[in-house]
Amino acid sequence: MTTELNLTVFQLALREDGIAVITIDLPGESQNTLKAAFITEANTLLDRLEQDANVQGMVFISGKPGSFIAGADINMLKACKTAAEATELSKAGQRFFDRLENFKAPVVAAIDGACLGGGLELALACHGRVCTDNPKTALGLPEVMLGVLPGSGGTQRLPRLIGIPTALDLMLTGKHLNARKAQRLGLVDDVAPATILLQTAIDLAKKLQQNRAAMRKTGSLFSVKGLTKLALEDNPLGRRVLFQKAREQVLGKTKGNYPAPLRIIDCVETGAGQGFKKGLEAEAVGFGELAVTPQARQLMNLYFATTAMKKDTGVADASVQPRPVQKVGVLGAGLMGAGIAYVTTNKARVPVRLKDKEPAGLNRGLAYIDRLIQKRVQRRSITSFEAGQERHRVTPTLDFSGFHNVDLVIEAVFEDLKLKHQMIADVEANCPPTTIFATNTSSIPIAKIAEAAQRPENVIGMHYFSPVEKMPLLELIATPKTAPEVIATTVELGRKQGKTVIVVQDGAGFYVNRILAPYMNEAGYLLAEGVAVDAIDQALVEFGFPVGPFALLDEVGIDVGSKVGPILYEAFGERMKPAGVADKLLADGRYGRKSKKGFYLYEGVKKGEKPVDKTVYGILGVSGDKAVDAKEIVERCVLMMLNEAALCWDEGVIRSLRDGDIGAVFGIGFPPFLGGPFRYADTFGITELAAKLEQYRQRLGERFAPAEILQRMAKEKQTFHTD
Fold first, then answer.
1. Which one is catalytic: 121, 475, 485, 492?
2. Which residues are CB-neighbours of 421 under 8 A, at least 6 positions away?
3. Are 339 and 468 within 8 A, CB to CB?
4. Which of 6, 84, 125, 171 could form a disulfide with 100 if both were Cys (CB 3.0 to 4.6 A apart)?
5. Which of these, 144, 153, 124, 123, lies nearest to 267 by C-alpha position?
6. Catalytic annotation on 644?
7. CB 62 within 8 A of CB 113
8. Contact criterion met (CB below 8 Å) for 633 and 536
9. What is the CATH number of domain 328-509?
10. Residues paired with residue 473 on neighbouring β-strands, in sequence order
11. pLDDT computed for residue 305 by the predictor
12. pLDDT tens digits for range 402-429
């Protein structure tokens, strides 16, 4: 029978066998999230069911296919102005989940789709969990990505269920688990097809009802088996070592720029040593204090920005619809082309025709794709059968056979304008008139490439970042002649490939490489002055970049990086003039990691070590021992980037400040906790930024001249962002 309680979020159906099925369906939303109304109604629901003697069990299931609960409503968190307000949010969630865990009858979560953050915390408070084998099913506690911690019991219940080391790994990384991995770890009890999910959950509730001891068993902090359990988790000294090691690893990765991971460790350690109640208290306080930190606020800003971008078609006219893309052609089977083919078949699930001029090139590209697929097989993310299906969606060719029905071609050939013109001619000769031609150039203006096209309206830039399978950004570059539906089509394909997409105006370096170039150049000038390679890299890593500029150049390829410099120098003059470091190293045959010769040593070194190749200093004719304060190193490099970003905004290169911040964070690793170049400029202070640039201009030259827009904003006391 169905019981009416005048609820909006929940629908209650009380079966004749005593199992209460509660369907979660947040009205007007595509996915369920934990809002204030959720907790209020959930408590009302429990009040009703606790009083009903006929209730023998309870099952939570979502009314939205492919979405259990995607987490808490971030707007609710952002609305908190004080730590006390956020702490109370945490306590309210804890109180409800405590009620759920202590419910008189077994409670089971039936999970299909995203079960993240507060959604997983709800599931952890249940006595059993089953989930579907749907590829969309994902379980995790990603709160650290927002600069906070799981605030509704997650830091306490997850370690008790799957052990401290595994729980810390999940919470400190924010990673998601698929259904099978979650089952292997003991996070879920069973995996079932969506068609029988509800019945599987009902059966589990009945089983737990028959075995009340199993119902009350929440797991153990000491679920790790064997010597590890005895040595680390079962004794206070061992636990102290475990937590100390975790802190060292976190500090090694974050450089102390992110407070949330350390606070997560503190909460887990408190619960392990002082008990569940004390752990919850530490969790609530930690959640409240973290929620109002500058880091959390900036990470929340990024979250809202990326969420908004998912609805952005890239064009102002909302009536413009993307074309269907049922087959993609990729020209060039190098690392970039193979990576593009991989994300197209893996993420977008679109067949790819991969072309190269040499059999050896094709074989290398296919082998690269195979390795990426096999890694997922080894991790048990996919089956061997699924791997075979995915691999066979990529078909190789040495000519344009099989291109007669492609909807979009992406070229990933050398940075040579003449060669790219030939690619356009070949595509227009061998493909339908509607086929989109996308160039993966990193620096050549798209308009110059489109000059060779009979149908320039079909030409667009799709600038991927290396390695394609890992880097989250896709920079789309439209010319004034690019058709709006072409923009919309490539935006949609990029999202299906798993990318965050920004659309920028055509021009030398576009946006991302244009703001990166002066940053890299300034690092080169510092090196040319005699500052050590590792001193420069370390200063910028400590600031928050994932790698330093010279380590980055070694990875990208010194030869590749050097090709961008002359193009930007020609376009923008003295402020983009390279320091000349790359040319001298190339003359010595140094191309970076790929040639085992660059700024760092790659042969004859211990695993995990990467010492500087000190012969670089002799090649450059510098000492490598000039002492420059880390603060100055950071200022000189980062302020040049901020200045160029301001110029890009002033010139209309980017459509929004949001795109500018996202592009820098996702494209070049600008520190996320700083929010992006425009958010950071506001934090630094526009007046202070303009003044500091002027100081360096007086000392080091015109390349530091503050952008006119910064001078104007400083005079008028303006900021970029107003929220």
1. 475
2. 449, 451, 452
3. yes
4. 125
5. 153
6. no
7. yes
8. yes
9. 3.40.50.720
10. 500
11. 93
12. 999 999 999 999 888 999 999 999 999 9
